[in-house]
Write a structure and sequence with these properties.
Shape of chain B: globular
Number of helices of chain B: 11
Number of helices of chain A: 8
Radius of gyration of chain B: 23 Å
Low-confidence stretches of chain A: 246-259
Shape of chain A: globular
Radius of gyration of chain A: 19 Å
Strand order of the largest sheet of chain A: 5-6-7-3-8-9
CATH superfamily of the domain at 59-207 in chain B: MetI-like
Strand content of chain A: 15-25%
Strand content of chain B: under 5%
Largest interface: A-B, 24 and 18 residues
Bound molecules: adenosine-5'-diphosphate, magnesium ion
Number of strands of chain B: 0
CATH class of the domain at 59-207 in chain B: Mainly Alpha
Structural class of chain A: alpha/beta
Mean pLDDT of chain A: 89
Order of helices and strands of chain A: EEEHEEHHHEHEHEEHH
Low-confidence stretches of chain B: none
Oligomer: heterodimer
Helix content of chain A: 25-40%
Number of strands of chain A: 9
């Protein structure tokens, strides 16, 4: 269980986030969407502990080592092979080297990278690197995975395949997920719940949508589910209102000054 | 006509042979003053003499010792100071202006000073090589560490790695990569330092032979030594190129 309560964050000036709250239940797949620059990545960095909020708390029932993180550009160590990169995630957790290497090979194989274990990242394609990063995260048997636009750098076809693999593995291992994305279709097709972050500054969660599409899910097929279109339309109009609201901002400030 | 790039070396060699032959012929015809431009055969026999009576070896040894000594010391000290300065702001405050000054001047001007301080022996040559190399390596490491990829650091941290894991898996390999990337330049600097040091004041070494050839107006000997220095540096270049290629095979 991950619970974010009334988190506010400032980088020095006006707060980027103000009173943002959300929750991810055990085994739940949750997405966080919002306008670009609203503070989605910032909120995730607060949860990870890379940023300290000025107010609010993050409650998490998982240990640090049970949390996996996947970013847009997954910085694999360029001087380590695919196998060494994956194994490093395990040895840093205290696993002995031989077991770590065996596990690394197992997970690389499961993600379709058998035969690429000895490649350096520079010699892998974008999709393959993403799979290595995924193997690195999954090999640690996480209970929660935090993802920040992890698929944004992949082209459409590779992306569809990687996403399908992720969903299958996450469902199978009952891993909780918090996914940050700007892709509404992706959010709806993968998640049990979607949170909408309002336009910043002082962004907070303004809407929560439950997605009643049954599991196991096929990320492409679930777009054909009857509830998908309705939810998509609602999410889209709420988001458009948020982005449109940026014009209303000065008016509110004027009002504040007048008051 | 299209040129097969694989055969470039044949054309290069043939042209070189032609130039040498013309040079030789010009010498015999009396068009070139042998005092300034001795024909290739004279240079060849000077080379032959140097090696056949074994006179060259102590000089080669002296230059090598000075250059390699300066190179190794310079790399070790350069890395150590670079790391310290990158980690401890107080040390950076003290070191950075000194290094910037040393970097701004042509450091070979320190050669006479080192002779006064350390004598005409090998120490002053090692010192000159050392100062050339260490300043280069210091800046490589110092700026390198400050520009280390933040994402790699965050990655290791979020995987649960502490300070030691960061040093071992991120900083050390990064530092090694930057140093290796500058290894060829450092080797060139090291030999420059050794030869210039010997040129200024010495009793042995290729630089000393050069200054001897100069004082006796022996152009053939001078050409021979320049040739030897070129070959030596090229060999070391290719060795360090191979080392770099092996250790940086991940690029
Ligand atoms: N390290 C930082 N320092 C200062 N401002 C930042 C920093 N990171 C993000 N911001 C600002 O915070 C706001 C939210 O950024 P971010 O969390 O990256 O948004 P999102 O991920 O939703 O696109 C933006 O206005 C951005 O400019
Ligand atoms: Mg972002």
């Amino acid at each position: 269980m991950l619970r974010v309560r009334d988190v506010s964050l400032s980088y020095g000036g006006e707060p980027v986030l103000e009173g943002a709250s959300l929750a991810v239940g055990d085994g739940q797949f949750v997405s966080l969407v919002g306008p670009s620059g609203s503070g989605k990545s910032s909120l995730l960095r607060v949860i990870i502990g890379l940023q300290t909020p000025i107010a609010g708390i993050v409650e998490c029932s998982y240990r640090r080592s049970e949390i996996g993180i996947l970013f847009q550009d997954d910085a694999l160590l360029p001087w380590k092979t695919a196998r060494e990169n994956v194994a490093l995630g395990l040895t840093l957790n205290g696993m002995d080297r031989r077991d770590a290497v065996a596990q690394a090979d197992h997970w690389l194989g499961r993600l379709g990278l058998a035969g690429f274990e000895d490649r350096y990242p520079r010699r892998l394609s974008g999709g393959q690197r993403k799979r290595v990063a995924l193997a690195q995260v999954l090999a640690r048997k996480p209970k929660l995975i935090l993802m920040d636009e992890p698929f944004a750098s992949l082209d459409a076809i590779v992306r569809a395949r990687v996403v399908a693999d992720v969903v299958a593995l996450v469902e199978q291992q009952k891993i909780s997920v918090l996914l940050v994305t700007h892709d509404l279709e992706e959010a709806l097709s993968l998640s049990d719940a979607v949170y909408l972050l309002s336009q910043g500054p002082r962004a907070r969660i303004t809407q929560e949508y439950n997605v009643p599409i049954p599991r196991p899910r096929d990320p492409v097929r679930s777009r054909l589910h009857p509830s998908f279109a309705t939810l998509y339309e609602k999410l889209w109009s709420d988001l458009s209102r948020e982005v449109g609201g940026e014009h209303a901002q000065p008016a509110r400030d004027d009002a504040a000054e007048a008051a | 006509m299209t040129l097969d790039p694989r055969h470039a070396w044949i054309r290069q060699l043939a042209t070189l042979a032609l130039v040498l032959a013309l040079w030789e012929a010009a010498g015999y015809a009396g068009w070139l003053n042998p005092l300034f431009a001795p024909p290739p055969s004279r240079i060849g026999s000077a080379l032959h003499d140097l090696f056949s009576d074994g006179r060259i070896w102590p000089h080669l040894e002296a230059t090598f010792t000075a250059a390699l000594g300066g190179l190794i010391l310079g790399i070790i000290v350069g890395i150590a100071l670079g790391v310290l300065a990158a980690l401890i702001p107080f040390i950076a405050e003290l070191l950075e202006p000194v290094m910037t000054l040393l970097n701004a001047i042509p450091r070979v001007v320190l050669a006479p000073l080192f002779v006064i301080w350390l004598g005409v022996g090998i120490s002053s040559k090692i010192a000159l090589s050392f100062i050339l190399v260490s300043v280069l390596i210091f800046f490589t490491v110092f700026t390198g560490i400050r520009q280390v990829d933040r994402r790699l650091v965050e990655r290791i941290t979020t995987l649960g790695g502490g300070r030691w894991a960061l040093i071992r898996h991120v900083y050390l390999p990064s530092v090694a990569a930057w140093v290796l990337g500058n290894l060829k330049v450092a080797v060139g600097f090291a030999f420059t330092g050794a030869c210039v040091g010997e040129f200024v004041a010495a009793t042995r070494g290729l630089g000393y032979l050069l200054s001897f050839a100069q004082s006796t107006y022996n152009a053939a000997l001078m050409f021979a030594i320049i040739l030897i220095i070129m070959v030596v540096v090229l060999v070391i270049f290719s060795l360090s190129g191979r080392l770099e290629k092996y250790l940086m095979r991940w690029t």
